[in-house]
Amino acid sequence: MTIHASRISRRRTAASAVLALAALVGGAAPTALAAPSTPVAPSAPAAPSAATAPDIPVANVKAHLTQFQSIASANGGNRAHGRPGYRASVDYLKAKLDAAGYTTTVQQFTTNGSVGYNLIADWPGGDADQVLMAGAHLDSVSSGPGINDNGSGSAAVLEAALAVSRAGYQPDKHLRFAWWGAEELGLVGSRYYVGNLSATERSKISGYLNFDMIGSPNPGYFVYDDDPVIEKTFKDYFAGIGVPTEIETEADGRSDHTSFKNAGIPVGGLFTGAGRTKTSAQAQKWGGTAGQAFDRCYHSSCDTTSNINDTALDRNSDALAHAVWALSSGGTTEPPTGDTYENTNDVAIPDNGGAVSSSLSITGRTGNAPSNLQVGVDIVHTWRGDLVVDLIAPDGSAYRLKNASGSDSADNVRETYTVDASSETANGTWQLRVQDTARYDTGYINSFKLTF
Predict the structure, then answer these.
(1) Is residue 257 within a helix (H) or strand (E), and if so which, with residue range?
(2) From CA 420, how far away is CA 241, in angstroms rounded?
(3) Under 8 Å CB-to-CB from 140, ≥6 apart: which residues?
(4) Strand stretches in 198-328, DSSP E
(5) What class does CATH assign to 58-328?
(6) For residue 377, what are the CA distances in angstroms to 119, 223, 445?
(7) For each of the chain's 452 residues, which pLDDT tens digit applies?
(8) 415 flagged as catalytic
(9) What are the residue boundaries of the structural domains of the chain, listed by start?
(10) b/e string for 247-271 if b means 16 or more Cβ within 10 A?
């Protein structure tokens, strides 16, 4: 892959610079330890391996946004609930999906004295007892056309659905796409949909992916931290293209995934920011302008086709398709035999810095740990050869899992190691300790688990 070639070239160039300017280069400060998480047994299964998702052409997504803009312009400047622009938006999507072979359903509800509509599109085939859904709210506020909020998510979900059709994709799970009405009035459409599902129908939904504002003009890259498998799917995708992410907080409870989450359905999603201000650290990480809102036109008349960052829209559309393909292929993975304890908190690994740790507090067990203790390691890193990885037992004993190696130029450490820990008491705080021993590459501990 070209990313490896460019990294090697960069490292050689940087190494030459260090030899010439060694006196000017300083070390990085270590990062504090992550707080221990509450153990859960057994852990959630790992995301299934997937067929390769197609690239989503951003030009196609933008073409849908142009149509939404035209619809708003022809209908009083908006696509809000109860207004003709919203129904015209539903009709536009439905025509595209019907032509692509979907079974579509328009679900009606009433709020604020006006009829609202959800659009549901089912792709034929797949296991009807395992339904993967992806959705976005289609309505705008009354003050503008809502091209980023939320034409961006609606257009990307539409284009992913059309990509499924173009590819003739036959996933193991049943695929369902949805566009919600009256989100801006309090998640009304999605709450109506979930509230009208029977308990059996709700139990069949294996996951819901939400996309609300994914093309903000001063973008961040935020991932929902709800279901760990869905979260990991998105974070791994962005790590693979070299884009750091942060946990989403601004939209938490304010978008349609909440309707599903409150019903006990696993959820996840993406977000590029709304009215909150981008910090200097975020601007350094992602580009853009510090001290300015992620979307200065949030809920305003200027939320037009000019209010879109093409790069963010492209990346998030591709991440959407990746998640749809990854999470719909393969059956449910059986959890490992034995009790599994996992910490999914991210811990940043400083470049050429001090060691950091992810911790697990084990309680309620008797005796010693097994002779075949399984140590699951998931580290996202752009040069795994820099890393030294140890398991630290409760008494401080260290078990080396991985040495640093200058010839190991691959990305990431995703391994399950077997450790003879039979001399260690099972109860206590176990740690995964990681140190980056060379410059120029960074990453984070994504998760750490022990199976007894």
Answers:
(1) helix 257-261
(2) 37
(3) 72, 78, 79, 80, 85, 86, 146, 149, 150, 151, 184, 303
(4) 205-211, 222-223, 246-247, 267-271
(5) alpha beta
(6) 41, 21, 8
(7) 333 333 433 343 333 333 333 333 333 333 333 333 333 333 333 333 346 899 999 999 999 999 999 999 999 999 999 999 999 999 999 999 999 999 999 999 999 999 999 999 999 999 999 999 999 999 999 999 999 999 999 999 999 999 999 999 999 999 999 999 999 999 999 999 999 999 999 999 999 999 999 999 999 999 998 898 999 999 999 999 999 999 987 666 789 999 999 999 999 999 999 999 999 999 999 999 999 999 999 999 999 999 999 999 999 999 999 999 999 986 443 334 468 888 999 999 999 999 999 999 998 887 888 888 999 999 999 889 999 999 999 999 999 999 998 877 788 898 889 899 989 989 999 999 999 999 988 899 999 999 98
(8) no
(9) 25-43+335-451, 58-328
(10) ebeebbeebbbbbbbebebbbbbbb
E strands of 162-266, at which residues?
173-180, 205-211, 222-223, 246-247
- What's the chain's Rg over C-alpha atoms? 24
Q: Pick the closest to residue 336 from 378, 372, 379 (CA basis).
A: 372
User: Do residues 382 and 441 touch, judged by C-beta distance below 8 A?
Assistant: yes
Nearest to 369 by CA among 324, 319, 419: 419
CA 315 centroid distance within chain: 12
Of residues 235, 238, 125, 228, the one with CA closest to residue 171: 125
Looking at residue 203, the DSSP 8-state letter turns out to be H
DSSP string, 275-300: SSBPPHHHHHHH-S-TTSBS-TTTTS
CB 47 within 8 A of CB 326: yes
d(CA 178, CA 133): 7
Amino acid at 69: Q
Tell me: cis bond preceding 210? Omega within 30 of 0 counts: no
User: What kind and span of H or E run contains 65?
Assistant: helix 58-73
The C-alpha atoms of residue 48 and residue 113 are separated, in whole angstroms, by: 45
Handedness of CA 68, 74, 79, 82 (dihedral sign): negative
Q: Which of 159, 183, 248, 342 is catalytic?
A: 183
Domains 25-43+335-451 and 58-328 are alike in CATH topology? no
Query: Where does residue 309 rank: exposed (0-12), middle (13-18), buried (19+ CB within 10 A)?
Result: buried
β-bridge partners, 105: 120
Maximum separation of any 2 CA atoms in the chain, in Å: 74
CATH architecture assignment, domain 25-43+335-451:
Sandwich (2.60)
Distance separating alpha carbons of residues 217 and 208, to the nearest angstrom: 26
